[in-house]
Amino acid sequence: MIDLRAPLADSDVRRLKAGDEVVLRGVVYAARDMAHKRLCAAIDHGQELPIDLEGAIVYFVGPTPARPGSVIGAAGPTTSSRMDPFSPKLIAHGLRATMGKGYRSDEVRRALREHGAVHLATLGGAGALLSQHIIGAEIVAYEDLGTEAIRRLEVVDFPAVVAYDAAGGSVYDMIRDRSGV
User: Fold this and answer.
1) CA angle, corner 103, sides to 99 and 104, nearest 5?
2) Pseudo-torsion of CA 95, 101, 106, 110, nearest 10°?
3) Average pLDDT across the chain, whole number
4) Residue 156 is assigned to a structural domain of this protein
């Protein structure tokens, strides 16, 4: 198990290999489709971003409302490919890790290699369990988007697997090669 502290340094990212199990500590940003679209529009218009992407991890999640006494509701990953149209631009602007579930496009994989970033996968269907690793949550941008607003999450021992590494490795390719499918 590799302990990673966010924001990530380039050396943190480059040592990771597809299949590595990691636990995250520090600040992770929660953002989904509409927030990604707005971030990219801001970049296109030369506007300042509401979050610092340098070394950042973005988790593709739209958490449910927090129950009384909880920091956040269920916080399971959404399908990563939904962010594929936006991820290369954000990676080029310093984003060092994305996290969700499922495959990424060839264009995203190229951006990961070109800019030294990784994609992490975490457990789909385990939102209640994953929320136990989130000890702080606050909306920091695009509050009008509701569940899709950008949130600053403080995480401890948040489990993930390196699905795509900065050298082009893929845990999905490894599984396919082993199974012969």
Assistant:
1) 75
2) 20
3) 94
4) yes
CATH classification at residue 164:
3.20.130.10
Q: Is residue 13 part of a domain?
A: no
Concatenate the DSSP letters of all residues of 17-52 into one string. Answer: -TT-EEEEEEEEEE--HHHHHHHHHHHHTTPPPSS-
Distances (CA, A) of 176 to 23, 108, 164, 172: 25, 20, 14, 6
Please name the residues in contact with 105: beta carbons below 8 A apart, sequence gap of 6 or more: 81, 84
**Domain of 158, in residue numbers:** 2-8+18-179
Q: How far apart are CA 7 and CA 25, in angstroms?
A: 9
Residue 40 in any domain: the answer is yes
Q: How many domains does the chain have?
A: 1
pLDDT in tens, 119-163: 999 977 778 889 999 999 999 999 999 999 999 999 999 999 999
Q: Residue 34 — φ and ψ, nearest 5°?
A: -65, -35
Question: Burial of 77 by CB count in 10 Å (0-12 exposed, 13-18 middle, 19+ buried)?
Answer: buried
Whether 82 maps to a domain, the answer reads yes
Give CA angle at 92 (100, 151), nearest 5°: 45
